[in-house]
Every structure is written in structure tokens, then in C-alpha cells.
Amino acid sequence: MERSIGQIVADDYRSAAVFDRYGIDFCCNGDQSLETACQQKQLDIVELRKLLHTTLLGPKPKPTDFKSWPLDLLINYIEKKHHRYTVEKIPVIHRYLNDICREYGAQHPELNQIFEIFITSSVELRVQMEMEELVLFPFIQKMLTAKYNSKTLHIPHFAPINIHVLALAHNHRIEGKRLRKIEALSHNYTPPEDSSKAYKKTFVLLREFYKDLQFHIHLENNILFPKSTLLEKEFRTSV
């Protein structure tokens, strides 16, 4: 069975650069096959496979293999690096967007749309991260503790893994659409030539925020969630 594009990137993140180049969403829609992704983008799958092969043979050192990390280490990394980054950057970007919308919103109405989308996204992201930190992550940790100590664990029929992974993956797809909309409205984060330093800084912050969130969602959708689901299955089959 052919790997999904999410699995391809999980195996080697260098492939993400290839998918990015052709606008293929590997983080929020990583469950689709390479064939489906190529059909949607009207790309030659043979040529894309060749490019992926060439990229992975390149001289650059292989990135960190997050797929091999223990789940507890991966959860800690996501919380400490990506959740913390998101929480810290949201008010900063909000302030910058508010300022440039007030100054340039009349001449560039797309800024107001970007601001509205970002506000919605920031609220939803906070809710999603809270759900992960208060419900999903502790449950995964509980399973890991039971496994490490060779103990049985009662898992209810409607377990958090079943419920929340599906809900979060769905929410991630929505976030992906919002971010792609911001990317389009900002012309790939390209400010007008005569824009101010604040205008340019805002777009730099938005681009960095998008890149971090893209990788954040990739780690969860393509590595953490599948491995957690498999762990849950281990406990169900052992009962």
C-alpha cells in the first residue's frame, strides 16, 4: 500500500520542501495519497516522484527523526516549543495587524480580511491546544505509564483517542484553509513595495507563524496521532 503524503514527510521532512513548492498540503491533508494530490494539482506523478527521490538523496543532513521519538518526548516538545510559541506570538501579531489595519486598511482592504481570519484562527487554536493539554495529552501519558509498568488500563468505549484525534484532525484542516486564505490575501506574504517597516514586519511575523503552525500540525497529524491510536489499540486487544 502506497504511503500517504503525510507519511512521506513523517519519514523524512526534507520532502516537505517539495510539497510546499507545488502547494500540496502535507500537514492538514496528509492522509491523501500522492496520486490524489497530483490529480488535484494537475501534476505529473512520475516527475514528482523523481524530484522527491532526488531531494532525499541530496547532500543536506537528514533532519531530526521525530518519528522515532518516544511519545512522551514528542508531546513535551510540542507543548514546550510549538504551543508556547503560538501563545506568545498571537498577541504580538494581533497588535501589529491592528496597527496596520488602522493605518492602511482603507487602501488595502485585504488587511482587514486577514485580521478577521487571524482573530478567528487564534481563538480556535487556543481552544484546540487547551483540549490537547488538558485531555488528550494526559490520556496518552496515562497509556504510556501503564505500558512502561506492564499494567492493564481500562479504556472506555468512547475513549479520548477516538474522539479527540478525529476532532482535532478536522480542526487542523479548517486551520489549514484559513492559513492558505491568509497566504493568498497577502500575496504569499509579500507587502507592497512602498509599505512601512511595521507593514513588512507584520508579514514576516505571519509567515513565521504559518511555518511553525504547519510543522506543529504535521507533528500531530502525521506522527503523534497515528502512534497514539496504535498505542490505544494495543490496550484494547490485550483486554
Automatic annotation (TrEMBL):
Occurrences of domain Hemerythrin-like (ranges):
80-227
| Key words of the record | Cytoplasm, Iron, Metal-binding
Classification via InterPro entries: Hemerythrin-like, RIC_family
Q: In its keyword annotation, does this UniProt entry include Cytoplasm?
A: yes
Q: Which PANTHER family match?
A: IRON-SULFUR CLUSTER REPAIR PROTEIN YTFE
Sorted alphabetically, the Gene Ontology cellular component annotations on this record are: cytoplasm
Q: Name one Pfam family in it.
A: Hemerythrin
Does Transferase appear among the keywords?
A: no
Note the Gene3D superfamilies from the entry: nmb1532 protein domain like
Q: Which organism is it from?
A: Cerina litoralis
* Protein's cellular compartments: Cytoplasm
Query: What molecular function does GO assign, one term?
Result: metal ion binding
Its recorded name reads DUF542 domain-containing protein
Name the source's superkingdom.
Answer: Bacteria
